[in-house]
Specification:
By secondary structure, the chain is mostly helical. The chain is about 80% helix and about 0% strand. The chain has helices at about 10-35, 35-60, 70-80, 85-110, 115-120, 125-130, 135-140, 145-155, 160-165, 170-189.
């Protein structure tokens, strides 16, 4: 028998958020010092060849990946010279599209036996039914693997409208990450 899931400890969540933000800033500082020229060369190529639509597509592809996620697209857009606000808007659009696609993937695979077992084991459906769009909003801004959460929301049967309301908070995390990336990039330039 599995133990009941722990209640979220606000202090722990805050420490995780600070740790994640510090990690992003340190990673950007390291990249800026160690690999600035190749990153800028690739980023300029990407921006010239693909522009903002390419940045949106890159975000759609990398956002569900736990770890670097949308930060990769933010670095490419910013180092490529697109400017702060165009990068934020394109990446915010891309992360919303990615969220909806992952929710749809969850709907497609939600009936598979192993997916249902995972949802039951981790009490995903009960949690999402109880907290609804607030759970998605928190997952979209906190340092948790957001891609699996979006797939789980679709697989557990969360209505798209409820999901979209929660996912609307995701651009706030993108904005905070971009601010850290811009600060780190300028510190190393």
């Amino acid at each position: 028998m599995n133990p009941p899931p722990e209640q979220a400890n606000p202090r722990r969540v805050l420490l995780q958020a600070v740790g994640a933000a510090s990690g992003i800033l340190l990673a950007i500082l390291a990249l800026g010092w160690l690999a600035r020229e190749p990153i800028e060369a690739f980023s300029r190529w990407m921006v010239v060849e693909w522009g903002l639509p390419g940045l949106i597509a890159l975000t759609v592809l990398v956002d569900p990946v736990p770890g670097p996620g949308h930060d990769t697209a933010l670095v490419v857009g910013y180092a490529g010279g697109l400017g702060f606000w165009p990068v934020w808007i394109a990446t915010a659009i891309g992360t919303q599209i990615s969220s909806w696609l992952c929710w749809g993937l969850g709907r497609l695979i939600g009936h598979w036996g192993w997916v249902q077992r995972l949802l039951t084991r981790w009490k995903v459906k009960e949690f999402l039914d109880r907290h609804g769009s607030r759970a998605i909003a928190l997952a979209s801004v906190l340092p948790v693997p957001y891609g699996p959460v979006t797939v789980g929301a679709g697989a557990s049967g969360m209505p798209l409208r409820t999901f979209m309301i929660g996912a609307a908070a995701r651009p706030l995390k993108v904005l905070a990450a971009l601010a850290m990336i811009a600060a780190g990039w300028h510190l190393t330039g």
